Amino acid sequence: MLWPDSPEPDPGWTSSDDSGRPEQTIASEWREPDTSINVAGESEASDTRASAEEAESAQPEISLDRLQHALANIGIDEDGNLVLDEIALASLREAFRGLENAGPDTLDELKRYVEAGLAGETGVQAASILGDYINYRKALTAAEADWAELEDLAPRDKLERAIELRRQHMDPLTASQLFAGEDAHQRYLIAMEEVRTNPDLDGEQRQQALSRLREDLHSGALLVDSEGTDAVEKLRSERQSWESMGLSDKTQDYLEQQTLGLVAARDLTGTDARDWQNRYDQFSQQRDTILSAGLSEDEKARQVESLMDTYFTAEEVEAASNWLPEYLKAELSD
Question: Region entry Disordered: which residue ranges (predicted)?
Fold first, then answer.
C-alpha cells in the first residue's frame, strides 16, 4: 500500500518504516571544511568592525550549524549518491527556511561549503541539489504571487505550472524522485474535490468515482501525469490479463512499474506526445506477444526489459528506470 486509507491523506506523509534506510547520512560522512565561508555571521572578512557590520547589513545572518543540522539526515547510498526520498525533501525544506533570503553570492558560498564538507561526488551532488532547490523555491514564491492574480487558475493547472517551474530549476529526474509522492497526493486531493463538487454526478456515481480515485492512489497511477495517453488506464485490464496468464505478482508489479515509468519518461524527457504514443503502442503489442509466448517467466521478463531499447531512447529508458526513489518502488510492490 502506498498511502494510508485516510480520506484526505496528508501531503507531508512519510513512511514510518526505517528498515530500508541507508546507514550512511550526511551527518555521518560530514567533515568540517578546512575553509572559511564569507556569509554574514560566519565571515572571514572581519579585519575591521565596519566591514563586518557592512556585511551583516547587506544580507541576513546565515547559521552554518543550522544548515548542517537541516541536511544531516539525508541518506547516502553505497555508491555515494544522495538518497532522494521524503526525508531528503523535508531536509531541503528545513534548509530553505534558513536560506530563503540569501542572495546569489551567499548561496554560492554555502554550496562551496557543503561541497567541501562531503567527499567527492557526494559533495558535488549535495551542493548542486541544495542550490537548485533554493532557486526553485524562490521562483515558486514569485510565481505564486503572480498566480494569485489569476482568478480562473484551477488547482490542477497551478500544480502543473509548479511542476514545470520545478523542472526549469532542477534536474527533472532529481525533481521527480523528490516530489513524485507529494505530487500524487496533490493530484488525489484535487481530483477528489472535483468529484465532490461535480453537479452532474448522483450519489452512487460520486461514491464510485471516489472509490476509483482511492484505487488510483494506492496503485501508483496518480504518480504520473497520464493526460493524453490511456496507458495507465489500461493497466486495470492488463493486470487481469497477466493474472490469467499465471504471471507471478513480482512480474506483474514489474510490468506495472515499467508502464508507469515510461509514461513518466514521456514528460521528463520532453518527448513529443504523439510520437511517444505511437512507439508505446508498438511496444505494448510486442510486450503482449512475449508475455503470451511459451517461455519461462524469467525469460519473458528479460525480453520485455530488452524491448524498451527497441522503441525508446536511452534517455527515456534511464528516466523510466530512475524516476521514482527506491522507497516508493518498494511501496508499489507491497
Answer: 1-62
d(CA 326, CA 331): 9
pLDDT value at residue 23: 82
Whether 121 contacts 80, CB under 8 Å: yes
Residue 206 in any domain: the answer is yes
In a domain, 278, yes or no: yes
Confidence of residue 77 (pLDDT cuts 50, 70, 90): very high
d(CA 42, CA 44): 7
Dihedral of CA atoms 155, 158, 162, 164 in degrees, nearest 10, equals 120
β-bridge partners, 75:
25
Per DSSP, the three-state class of 88 is: helix
Is 329 within the bounds of a domain?
A: yes
Residue 76: φ, ψ to 5°: -130, 125
Distance from C-alpha of 226 to C-alpha of 187, rounded to nearest angstrom: 11
Is 41 a residue whose pLDDT tops 70?
no
Residue span of the structural domain in which 325 resides: 194-333
> In the 3-class helix/strand/coil scheme, how is 133-152 assigned residue by residue?
HHHHHHHHHHHHHHHCCCCC
Query: Residue 82 gets which letter from DSSP?
Result: B
Cell of residue 199, nine digits: 453537479
Is residue 243 in a domain?
yes
Neighbouring-strand partners of residue 25: 75
User: 42-56, 126-140, 213-227, 237-251 — which is least confidently predicted?
Assistant: 42-56
For position 3, what pLDDT does the model report? 33
